[in-house]
Every structure is written in C-alpha cells, then in structure tokens.
Amino acid sequence: MSTALRILLLLGAVAMLLFVVRSIRKSRIQMKDALVWMMIAVLIAIFGIFPSIPVWIAWAIGIESAANMVFLIFIAILLICIFSLALRVSMLEDKITTLTGEVAIRTQKDDNIEKDLSKKITEDHEDE
Known about the structure:
Elements: H1 3-25, H2 31-49, H3 52-61, H4 66-127
Helix pairs in contact: 1-2, 3-4
C-alpha cells in the first residue's frame, strides 16, 4: 500500500472522528449511528497504520491490490449502512402513515363533538 494512501486513510479517519464527535455534541446524530461511524473511522485508521492487514486480506481473497481491497471493504460497509437506513426510513414511513390516520380520526371526532356541543348550546338558547 502506498504511503500516500496510508496518509489519506489516517487523515480521513481523524476527520471522520472529529465530524462524528461534533455531530454528537450538537445532537444531530443518534448514538447508535455515531458508534457505527466511529467504528468505521477506527477501521480506516487501522488499515492506515497496519497496511499488512488489507494486504493479507487481499492476498487471501485473490485481489492483486491492497488499495482495491480497502475500497472494496468500505464500499461493502457503506452498502450495508445504506440498506440499514433504507429499512429505518421504510419503518418510519409506515409509522407516519399510521399516525396521520390516527390524527385524522381524532380530528374528525373532535370536530363532531364540537358540532354536537354547538347544536346543543344553540338548542338550549332557543328553548329559553
């Protein structure tokens, strides 16, 4: 693995850790998501510090370049993250649909109650 790639991996890992920590402090990311991104940053740093690990993995799988192995690993990790987020978005859309229906039903009930009360008040005033 080239020295330039190793330096790029280390700088990327430090930048990612700083960005995640800043996002946690500003409460813009949930802790479970932050932990995943921190683990990815640590993995990037490990690959930058110990380039023999991706070289060995690449050799074991039969990939000629360790750099290609690093990119392959992180593309796979990011695809898993994207799939996980897609699942979460899908579940949230279902919850939003359910909540929207419940709010509509409650609003309709409230409107009916208000109409009934105003009719009763009007009838009571007419009777007096």
